[in-house]
Every structure is written in structure tokens, then in C-alpha cells.
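User: Is it possible to get a 3D structure for a protein together with its bound compound? The compound here is zinc ion. I've pasted both below.
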Amino acid sequence: MRTLIRDVRVFDGERIVPRADVLIAGDRIGEPDAAPDAPVDVEVDGTGKTLLPGLIDAHTHAFDGDLAEALAFGVTTELDLNNLPPILAAQRRLAAERDDVADIRSSSMIATAPRGHPTQIMTPDVLRALGTDSTLDTVADAGEARAFVEARLAEGADYLKIAIDDGGASGTSLPALSPALAAVLVEAGHAAGLKVVAHTVTAREALVALDAGVDGLAHLYSDVPPERAAETAALIAAYGAFVISTITYIEAVTGDPGGAELLRDARVAARMSEQSKATFTREFAGIPMYSDGVVNASHAAVALLRAGVPVLAGTDATPFGPVHGAGLHHELLLLTEAGLTGEEALAAATSAPARHFGLPDRGRIAPGLRADLLLVDGDPAADITATRAIAGVWRAGARQD
Ligand SMILES: [Zn+2]
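Assistant: Yes, that's possible. Here is the predicted structure of the complex:
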């Protein structure tokens, strides 16, 4: 099957190319001029449209139904950052067997201290409601840390996630991994060839994780006021790690409905499941955070990017909200409102996560790469919400309805 998209504006993962032809040959992006006489099965007129790499959400938790909803919104890959093994296995199977759900990579379970974050949220009752009797493993000493990494490797984890969170940001007190134990986990993860990402919500926790050697942070810190954004970003930048944004999540837990504007956007509401719509009525009362968290995190995003820190777009989507798929379009809006250019925000949701999570076959539009593509009306580099005007989604070359 060969599909030619003609005369289309292309966002190649880094920048806008005003006009190009892009060939989809089977499950790959082809070279339009390689075989000019080979027949094309389908032609798509790209006039007035923009073709982007399929979007990558760098922070999700995928349960039943989530990967299908993600793909409907052009999110062709989800990077799951904590899940339960039986649920993860089912999602992986779906992604391997079907072409109408997003692809997935995952850390499997997060490493945390006994009774540490997120065990206060992922209680046995909540997990049963999500369809599993399994619970999170915890890590109390160095021996358990090494065993934890072995267990995640056995589950096929693509990277490792650890939690450094003492609950202080939400006005509680939780046991947290010690810096020494965090370092043992990072070392074991790295020895096994895994990148290590840390859940942290404050700048202090971020520095503890970075001192332990993590490769990336799962959230922007939300406790640093704008006037200290630049000096903190300079400190963080010295470590050479990446940061996943999740402003949508910070918005949700600080009392804003967290992307409720999506429901007022007819382009979005028409595609969103009833279950996702219902999450906007939910209160995240269990995990309050700094009331100025969104402002702080937004300033952090720009300061970090300007200091040379790769910023990856992520939502922290869960079955309880933020929502899968649409949530990433809201995150893109928040990133541009924070001060990123349209191209910078789009790169944060395409080439940047692909590069930093070791997915060289996607995140860009170039010959030979996987044909994960999103076609939209208009120019999202000029108006970021144009990513919602979806005119076509291809998943490894398979066009979605
Ligand atoms: Zn998360």
C-alpha cells in the first residue's frame, strides 16, 4: 500500500517545512523520488494542512481503553511510567496485535519506599477497581532495590521509574527512598541498560534524584516561584537530564478542572469518550499541591528549555484524568502559553521524547521511519490548537477511521 500526501506543510519533528510530498510505503515513510514510476494507491491533497509525526505522550498510565483513545487523538505512542504487571501485559498485547491502538513503552512498576508515594493513591481498592489484585512492590534496602530491578527486567520494562517524594508538596508526610537507596536503584537500572526516570514534584526532590544519577524527571517542579526560575534551571541543567512537563497534571491537582477547555472545543469533544468526559467532574482532593503550581511550572518549563534542558511533553494521563489523547493537546497549549514557540512545543511531543527514550524509529518525518503520522487542518506552529483539527492519523502506515 502506497499513499502519497501531496503539497503538505510538514513539521518534521524539529521545524516546519512549508511544502513537501510525503510517501507512506507500507508501515514506513518512503522517499517520494526513490521510485517515481511505482504506482500510488491513494493520494491525499495536503493543501492547507500540516503533517506531523504521530504525537508521543511522555508520561501516562495506560489501562483498558486508554491506548485506543490516545490514537484517536493522534497520540501514536504512550510512554507509561508506572503500571501493574497484569494490566501492562494486556496493554502491550493490544499494542502488538492491533493497529487501532497507540503503541506503548513502560517502566512497569515504580520503585518507592514502603508506604511511599504513590501507594497512598494506588490502594488495593483502587487497583481492584482498575481490574487487578496485584499491588506495588516497595523497596526497603539495597537487596530489595536490586531485586526490584530484576523483577522489572523480567516484566520487560523499557526503562526504570523511581519515586522521590516525601509528601511535603501536598501537605502530608510520606516515607521516601533515601538518596543512597535511590542511587542503588539507578546504578542497577543503568547496569541493565535502562534509563531511569524519577517522580519528583519539588526542586529539592529533583536535585536528590539528579544527584542519584537519574536520566530524567517525570514532572516539572512546581514549588519554585518565577523570580527564581532561571537560577534553579541553571542548577538542573548542569546534570544533563531531561524533564517531562505534565503541567496538565499539576493543573488538575491544584484545583483547576485540568483541561476542561477541551470539552468546550468541538473538535475535541466529538472524539472524546464518555468515560474521559466524566473525569472532568472529578476532584483530585487527595493530592493537593502548591496553589501557584501551574504558574511556577510554566516558568520552569521555559527557563529549563532556555538553559538547554530537553523538555518532553507529558500529561500523567490516568483512567481518572488527565485524559489520554486529548490531554496532550491541552499540554501543548499550556506549553505555548508558558512561552514555548509552536515548533518547540511540537518537538517536545515528537522528536524530543523519541530521542531521550531511545525510539529512533519515530518522532520525526524522514524516509525509513515508522509511518506514525498526524495530518491536521491549518498550521499548529502558528496556532497550536490546530493539532486538534485532525484530518488523518496513521499508525505504522495503517490509516485510522
Ligand atoms: Zn504519573
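The mean pLDDT is 94. The chain has 14 helices and 16 strands.
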